[in-house]
Amino acid sequence: MSKHMSAVPSPLNWPGYYAQQLKTCKDSRLKAFFEAGLVAPDTPLNEVPFVALDFETTGLNPKDHGIVSVGIVPFTLSRIRCKQASHFIVNPRQTLLPKSITFHGITHSDVQAAPDLEDVLHDFLPKLANQVVVVHYRQIEREFLNLALMARIQEQLFFPVIDTMTLEEHILKKQRTMFERLIGQKPNQSLRLPDIRERYGLPRYHLHHAMTDALATAEVLQAQVAYHFDGQTPISELWC
Amino acid sequence: MQAEQVEVSSFLSQYQPFDELPEEARDALAQSIEIAYFRAGSQILNFRDPIKDLYVVRSGSVEVFHRNGELHNRLAEGGIFGQMGVLMNGSVRFPVKALDDTLVYCIPDELFKQYFAEYDAFGDYFETDEAEVLRGTVSRSVESSDLSTVQAKTILARRPVIASPEMTVQQAAKRMGEEDVSFILVCSSHSEPESGQSKLKGILTDQHLRQRIVADGLPLTTPISDVMTQEFEVLDSNAYMFEAMLTMLRFNQPQLPLMHRDEPIGALTLLDILRHESQSSLLFVKGIFAQQSIKDLVRYSKQLPAVYVRMVNEDANSHMVGSAMAVIGRSFKQHLLSLAEEKLGKPPVPYCFLALGSMARDEQLLVTDQDNALLLDDAYDPREHEAYFEQLAKFVCDGLAACGYTYCSGDIMATNPQWRKTFTQWQECFADWIDNPEPQALLNSSIFFDLDGVWGETKLADILKIFIAQRAKKTPRFLASLARNALSRTPPLGFFKNFVMEPDGRHGKSINLKRRGTAPLSDVIRVHALAVGSDAQNSFERLDDINEAGLLPQGKGRELSDALEYISMVRIRHQAYDVEHNESPDNAINPMHLSTFEKRNLREAFQVLDNAQQFLKYRYHSQSAFK
């Protein structure tokens, strides 16, 4: 296998992980999450309940920075349901840097009035339970959430995600010409969310609002599947 | 907990009718929508599928179709579709397809209906649009009034009652009594496949029995073949309502047999259609003949613009609008002529009243002047008869002017002694135009090459048409001159295919869709039609003949008819819009007022005209070299 293909992490044994966590985790909210279960790995994409997730953070390093807002948008391949969408602002426990404020527009007074992430877990986690989470660039959402929970309740939380960025990278690789493949050339098209959206004819959004970014990600997955996948494909082929 | 949808809300605020909503209402709407993505070419809505949302195009573009597959509209960002389906109890009326990659916002029907009722400005947007047509349709007892998509056979009241030609009139009368019908179709029992002739030989009606048997005292044993009507029109069983209606009106034929191959499957009567279409242009035509005086007729003619608007709103295509308006114009003439004969007495010699130009082509719209002439029997003697026809012409032309058909500025009217000729004089006149083509003279007379008999001895007009078609075809020099004239009005496109506008009194700058679009297209089509010896007058029918003759390169005929249809429809809708907004309708539009799509399509249509003119130059120029 070529060097580039190895960049894709092999999917974990998610059913095994969920069963294990259900036995070992102590927090009641996490227990409820794992108890709700995992979308069956052989579910065709057409029938999967998805939920797009986006965090705005105080910076890019999960060890030093924290989550300030969360956007959640449930959808299927046929419809994105704004009515069930939600947006939380939370207190990051880390200092809000002026640089990040210019990004997401969430200010000191906003977060000071906001609850701690731990206090909204009972509201937040059920929205992800038994759904397939969709993110753009999974390192952010996965690491930030996991570390935030470690810091607060000393337990870890992972779940399978569809990463629209990884998906796009694969799609672009497949589209390389034979020659480009032979010389091992990487696709040179951008994997930034706005650029991907443009390629699929999706409108320009003012990004860096967790809700809008989640929405933008949901639309991208609809477009990617419409163009490159069969709706009958089992979900386990795409999650990681 | 619901979250604010900033993106959605700010998008909606830019487009009608959402910009009319209070901000809280718009935000609530934004929070309730659903979003869906469709890649280019995929179907968004299928005809008759259940529909639960109003759709707004967020990005990309879609095509909206009639159920018969014809394109109805193209919508870009901010365009709305599905309103008809939602308001019509939830099934899709107009199928929709994604033209580009398209993101749509779906507004739940309950919320849409709630806002529709609650916010006047929001509701009005849909009212003035299709809901008005919709309500009109629903209030009629019939489910659908879509003339272009309803097949005539679907409204046939019953199976035909059939008799054989040998049957006696008494037997036939008995049969009609038993079946309770007012007419009977007469068919030969044996088919004659080798002759290709229809089995249907005639129609026998109540009226025949009264007028030809009872009144003339013929024996009851007379075979029905002796008294039945043998000359009549039929239509194929797949014909649409509008064709059937127009045929019946045009040939004044109260029963119209519909044929499947050589057998009649039934006959449509005016009553069938009236029952179906109680509000239509047909009713208007009937009304024309019911007016007792010029004064009544003039008052009645004021309704014409409303009839026109209704027709446009019912999604009639340009051929339907054009021919319906021509039938109406023809009916005005016919009724005026019958009033004139009532006043002046019977004509001293037979004559035929001729319609020229757009009416003869069945391409009449609202803004039109009268172009007409008189064709007199060769027995005409000016010393004895001129006074009668002078008065008749004046009566009709004044009447037409009073009814809104303005006098012809070029004085091509029956009131001009120059355009009252005997049949032989007309033949000589056309022979001279064709054999000795003078560009200037031809320019003035080209309108005579669209000609139709409206009243009186219309057979004479038909013979004249054939005479013209045969002679023109054989005269390359004439065709070359006509072709040269057809280049005089160019499409309004500049070097970079931009729109070139012309100053006009009322609008500042505008494009004249008739002078720069439909008229030169008709000119081009007329040249080709005469070149292939077609005696059709309507541009679309001429194109059929041209295509059949294989004169144009593959696909070009279709392009011409699409272009003509498109420019005509823009012109038709523009006039309907003017009427609805109490402005006097005209042919001038400012492209600034068109959507991106309309501009693109219009530019394409003008480009087709430009190409067609180039082709004309080359095609008839080379021929004229042989003269």
Overview of the structural elements:
The complex is a heterodimer of chains A (240) and B (627). With 240 residues, chain A is α/β, with parallel strands linked by helices. Chain A has one domain (16-232): Ribonuclease H-like superfamily/Ribonuclease H (Nucleotidyltransferase, domain 5). Chain A has helices at residues 14-24, 28-36, 98-104, 108-112, 117-128, 138-153, 164-174, 178-182, 193-199, 210-228; strands at residues 50-57, 67-75, 80-81, 86-89, 132-135, 161-163. In chain A, strands 4-2-1-5-6 form a 5-stranded mixed sheet. Chain A is globular and about 55 Å long. Residues 1-10 of chain A have low confidence and may be disordered. Chain B has 4 domains: 6-139, Sandwich (Jelly Rolls), CATH 2.60.120.10; 152-276, Roll (CBS-domain); 326-474, 2-Layer Sandwich (Beta Polymerase, domain 2); 484-624. Chain B has 627 residues and is of the alpha+beta class. Chain B has 23 helices and 21 strands. In chain B, the strands form 6 sheets. Chain B has a 4-stranded antiparallel sheet with strand order 1-8-3-6. In chain B, helix 11 packs parallel to helix 14, helix 14 packs across helix 15 and helix 16 (423-435) packs parallel to helix 18. Classes of the chains: A alpha/beta (240), B alpha+beta (627).
Number of helices of chain A: 10
Q: Quaternary arrangement of the chains shown?
A: heterodimer
Q: From the 3D coordinates, which CATH architecture of the largest domain in chain B would you assign?
A: 2-Layer Sandwich
CATH-defined fold name of chain A: Nucleotidyltransferase, domain 5
Largest sheet of chain A: 5 strands, mixed
- The helix content of chain B is 40-55%
What is the overall pLDDT average of chain A? 86
- The fourth-level CATH homologous superfamily of chain A is Ribonuclease H-like superfamily/Ribonuclease H
